[in-house]
Amino acid sequence: MEKRTLGRTGHQSTVATFGAFSVGYVDQDEADCAIQLILDHGVNHIDIAPSYGHAMERVAPWMPDIRDKMFLGSKTTRRTRDEAWRDVEQMMKRLNVENFDLFQLHSVGNISELDKATASGGALETLIEMREQGLTQWLGITGHGPQVPITILESLRRFDFDTVMFPLNPASMRDANYRRDAEALIAEANARDIGRSRAAAGAKIQKTTAPGTTRTENKKPLTVPCGGYCPNRYTPPPPAAKSACCPKSSTPPSDSPPSTPTNRPPPSLHSDHPSRFPHWRFLKCEDTSVGATPCTI
């Protein structure tokens, strides 16, 4: 898989990195399937958060074997120093790690949230202390929502973050204000060699283009043969098929769509997106060798 330098971190991150949200809402067998899939394709960068259901517990068993091979990014939505420290301590236990490569302020979607995190006694102090104590090498900021480009741009005036993550897609770029602010943020990040990641659902796309250059990308659909979520569709496995993707599973998945809310993302993951995922449905394991139609997103 193609790799790009994640700004000043110097890390050669795969262009598709593993946003572990989806494995937080499946059992361990299906999570193992998804993790093995990304390893088989050479993915070397994980982005995970404590708000991603049970994602940390699903990834934790793999950490002793893959930690040294993975660039590990995590983040906190807590806005005060003390709350953020408690979050960090819980994350390290849940994920079974002693440190991170990148730690970020998470879901800073507007100036009000930024003010809280960067105030005296705010969560930014926790990130700085983590770096001083060797718990992370790099510091970043992420956000969702229409105000996020201008908010992150303002954050760079307040603190020299190493990475930024925000949505960048055709839908958001149709908004003239969003496009203007996003282009200003990209220009500033390029000028300061700040690593950029484009936030997506379940995956993060690395975007690192040298100042003064452009990049043309030929995007191919992402096939999701097992685990995760698929917009507006549910695709059960063929009745007689066993999953080629999840050999560890002792019982085949049900052919009917899930009826419990625990199999779906929470409707209010981010306060600035109160209904981000109401249209998503759970995608069960599929055996593509016997004609099942994998989800492409």
In short:
With 297 residues, the protein is an alpha/beta fold. The chain contains nine helices and 14 strands. Mean pLDDT is 77; it is low at 201-205 and 208-297.
What does this structure look like?
With 297 residues, the protein is of the alpha/beta class. It has a domain at 3-207: NADP-dependent oxidoreductase domain (TIM Barrel), CATH 3.20.20. It has nine helices and 14 strands. Strands 3-4-5-6-7-8-9-10 form an eight-stranded mixed β-barrel, surrounded by four helices. It has a two-stranded antiparallel sheet with strand order 1-2. The protein has a two-stranded antiparallel sheet with strand order 11-14. α4 packs across α6. The two termini are 18 Å apart.
Question: What is the strand and helix layout of this fold?
Answer:
Blueprint (H helix, E strand, L loop, with lengths): L2 E3 L6 E3 L1 E4 L8 H13 L4 E3 L7 H5 L3 H4 L4 E6 L4 H15 L6 E4 L5 H8 L4 H10 L5 E5 L5 H11 L4 E4 L3 H4 L2 H16 L3 E5 L3 E5 L15 E2 L4 E3 L48 E3 L12 E2 L1
Parallel strand pairs: 3-4, 4-5, 5-6, 6-7, 7-8, 8-9
Antiparallel strand pairs: 1-2, 3-10, 9-10, 11-14, 12-13
Helix pairs in contact: 4-6, 7-9
* Contiguous uncertain segments of 5+ residues: 201-205, 208-297
CATH superfamily of the domain at 3-207: NADP-dependent oxidoreductase domain
SSE pattern, N- to C-terminal: EEEHEHHEHEHHEHEHHEEEEEE
Kindly report the CATH topology of the domain at 3-207: TIM Barrel
User: What is the mean predicted local confidence, pLDDT?
Assistant: 77
- Spatial order of strands in the largest sheet: 3-4-5-6-7-8-9-10
Shape: globular
Largest sheet: 8 strands, mixed, barrel
What fraction of residues sit in β-strands? 15-25%
CATH class of the domain at 3-207: Alpha Beta
Number of helices: 9
Return the CATH architecture of the domain at 3-207: Alpha-Beta Barrel
